[in-house]
Amino acid sequence: MEESYDVIVLGTGLTECIISGLLSVEGKKVLHLDNNEFYGGECASLNLAQLYEKFGKTDAPSESFGRPRDYNIDLVPKFSMSAGDFVQILVYTDVTKYLKFKQIEGSFVYQDGKIVKVPATEKEALTTSIFSLSEKNNLRKLFEFIQKYNIDDPSTTDGLDWEKVPMKDIYKKFNLENSTCDLCGHALALYNDDTYLDKPFKETFQKIVLYMNSVTRYGKSPFIYPLYGLGELSQGFARLSAIYGGTYMLNANVEEVVYENGVASGVKIDGKVTKASTVIGDPSYFKNKVQKKGQAIRAIYLLNHPLADTNNADSAQIIIPQKQLNRQHDIYVTCVSNAHKVAAPEHYIAMVSTIIETDNPEEEIAEAVKLLGDYEGKFIEISDLYEPLADGTTDHVFISKSYDATSHFETVSDDVKNLYNRITGKTLSLEGKLRKDILEEDEE
């Protein structure tokens, strides 16, 4: 008799592992497969030898890098907002018991050729060196307005409908200069282009409040990051699934999805069909069911020094808003180090990422690379970005989106919630568990 499952999941990317864990907890019989020999898929973390092999480098890593096994280098750079939905998913599922986190020390923005700390409070708005005194006051007033705004209290709205009034009108109301608008939309709300300006200001306010709340949660910056790299996240959800009966198989030879009357009925592995009524996976397993939505460049650099103008931070994010370099999309610079157990002592891993706009992607990030200073190693990857053509409710094949060029997990959380709704017909509720101080064991 053929073995059968409720769900087969293809690929061990983080999105797939989260969905696998959630469905296993709900009592689904889950088989999770990956053609790779390691967890994480697109967002795996590799040691230095694995990184050299992936990028086809035939020479061995220099001894100056230290031990290759001391490295856990992310292929996709992402930080977690400490007050965001992604951390709540970790708390809700208790995956935090498998992980340890450390704060990212600094969040910076590139403004007029300089790297400056992102102001996220009324006090910081008044003390930042970015703006004139009058502009500081305008920004402070906007922050105060955002903090007091309550949709249930008309007296706080100044007569503005947050479901209708576009964000660009809010900027005009507070007489903000273009550079200040860039900071709010890109360094605080973390949009990677300017399409938000014509949309109702509700979402932008919510994103800025999330940033502010994430900063006040631990101080320094809004971001946290798991020790030993992002690959730990996928493995944490794999453990969760296994505890509830999920079965994992790496190095699987997935040949094709099998259909009956146009509906998924299983997966062929090494010539044998394993039955399942639902198939979930990343775009690499469904080339005929996804559409290309662009490309991202992700460039990894190995450094022996911290990023300049970040107060020697052991970790940091720098956002370069699109208009600073006459672009249509932001450029993100991230940096982590031995403090996060991802590099040898005195070494740092920096990554530059953005959406590709021309035929010369490396030239597009050249100004960002200058911010890194000297580097010892460089690894460039161009990734196609895919989205599913259909929602999966007809053929029972549910496909995730490719990981975008943003440097935070909120877009991944959105995709997880969307997938969960399409698969189960239910809204993913993250209520019922209080947020834990998941850094308390790691901070001195």
Automatic annotation (TrEMBL):
Chain segments annotated as transmembrane: none
Gene Ontology MF terms: Rab GDP-dissociation inhibitor activity
Any one Gene Ontology cellular component term annotated for this protein: cytoplasm
InterPro entries, sorted: FAD/NAD-bd_sf (IPR036188), GDP_dissociation_inhibitor (IPR018203), RabGDI (IPR000806)
Gene3D superfamilies associated with the record: FAD/NAD(P)-binding domain, Guanine Nucleotide Dissociation Inhibitor, domain 1, Guanine Nucleotide Dissociation Inhibitor, domain 2
Family annotation (Pfam families): GDI
Biological processes per GO annotation: protein transport; small GTPase-mediated signal transduction; vesicle-mediated transport
Family according to the record: Belongs to the Rab GDI family.
Protein name listed in UniProt: Rab GDP dissociation inhibitor
Organism: Piromyces finnis
